[in-house]
Write a structure and sequence with these properties.
With 352 residues, the chain is an alpha/beta fold. The protein is 55% helix and 7% strand. It has helices spanning 16-28, 43-50, 66-77, 94-103, 115-169, 177-192, 197-206, 219-222, 230-247, 253-264, 285-299, 311-320, 328-339; strands at residues 8-12, 33-37, 54-58, 85-89, 107-110. A five-stranded parallel sheet has the order 2-1-3-4-5, with helices on both faces. The two termini are 56 Å apart.
């Protein structure tokens, strides 16, 4: 509505003479979209048809008075839309004006009409509506930009998490696929045990960083084929503390969660794990979930120092370790996923 004269005006007055008078005044002033209504009971339909920029509303009408019609108009437009209502009345007492203003009237026109006053009051209200629309459009534009920027930041965050996980895994898994698969499996488990969508997504994104501490382990230990010597295994255990140290103090909640997982994903339900020997529910739930996801994926894929186990062999071992290595509730959920075929992608392939 760049040109005020292109505004759509709706006159609601039960007196045809008053409507005709206002139509003449408005037409002479250059307004071209003038609509009128003598029956206030038809306001709802006409409002929908016209979508006016201003309503000129008579105060005293049979069937519905002006305040009742105004209430209907405000109900239709809602609190975020500025639709000015100019009340037409011969009763310009302070009490009436106060009542009208409390009901949401924007301005008053007193009968008999003064042509100049009619045009000025309508012009002022339409200008205010125009400014309000511009502000609303600007607000919508800013909100859209914020949404787009937020999406960009979330995408960048997710990519950084993936790249960090890939960097950690690159030294003993050139594809980096293990971290991706562990994230997927951890998300499936978290969803199955009833965690919220937000928490499931956080675990799925944080899980790939569970072994980020490996970047601090020497190659002669990390890539050694066969079993570790006791001192080598002790050195290997340090990757949990290293991972926690790398991620400690982050301002991002997902990185803090990744730090918790990195430190505790080798803890065992019976307390025989490392690095702190935590037991049962003292082990963070997220770490318990990732521990099982990591175990399943590590055993079902070949590494330089081991052959790949079959999925069934791995599941048999997981069930055997329920209550020892793994949280029984998480094992139960994982078994359900396995039996339902949820650990395989729809195309029949594993989570490669």
């Amino acid at each position: 509505m760049e040109d005020i004269k292109l505004a759509k005006l709706l006159i609601v007055d039960d007196q045809e003479y008053n409507i005709s008078l206002l139509e003449r005044i408005l037409a002479r002033a250059g307004f071209i979209h003038i609509h009128s209504l003598a029956d206030p009971l038809q306001v709802r339909d006409r409002m929908t048809q016209v979508e006016p920029d201003i309503v000129l509303l008579d105060m005293h009408m049979p069937g519905m008075d002006g305040l009742q019609v105004l209430s209907l108009i405000r109900e239709m437009t809602g609190p975020d839309i500025y639709l000015p209502v100019l009340m037409l009345t011969a009763d310009a007492t302070p009490a009436m004006k106060q009542q009208g203003l409390q009901a949401g009237v924007n301005d008053f026109l007193t009968k008999p009409y003064d042509r100049t006053e009619v045009i000025l009051r309508i012009h002022n209200l339409l200008k205010t509506r125009q400014l309000h629309i511009q502000l609303q459009q600007h607000k919508n534009t800013l909100e859209q930009r914020v949404r787009e920027r937020t999406e960009e930041l979330q995408k960048a965050r997710n990519e950084i998490l993936q790249l960090l996980g890939r960097a950690a895994e690159y030294r003993d898994d050139m594809t980096g696929s293990h971290t991706f698969r562990v994230g997927r499996l951890a998300g499936l488990i978290a969803c199955r045990i009833g965690l919220s969508e937000e928490v499931v997504n956080s675990i799925r994104l944080a899980a790939p960083l569970h072994d980020i501490g490996k970047i601090g382990i020497p190659d002669d230990i990390l890539l050694k084929p066969g079993r570790f010597e006791p001192h080598e295994f002790e050195r290997m255990k340090e990757h949990t503390r290293i991972g926690s140290s790398i991620l400690d103090g982050s301002s991002f909640s997902i990185l803090r969660l990744a730090g918790v997982i990195a430190e505790a994903h080798h803890e065992k339900w019976d307390g025989s794990g490392y690095p702190s020997g935590l037991k049962g529910e003292a082990i963070p739930l997220e770490a318990r979930i990732v521990a099982l996801a990591d175990f399943y994926d590590a055993l079902t894929h070949e590494r330089p120092y081991k052959r790949a186990w079959t999925p069934q062999e791995t599941m048999d071992e997981i069930v055997k370790q329920s209550g020892l290595h793994f949280d029984p509730a998480i094992v139960s959920a994982f078994v359900q996923l396995y039996e339902e075929g949820k650990l395989v992608k729809p195309d029949g392939e594993g989570w490669e």
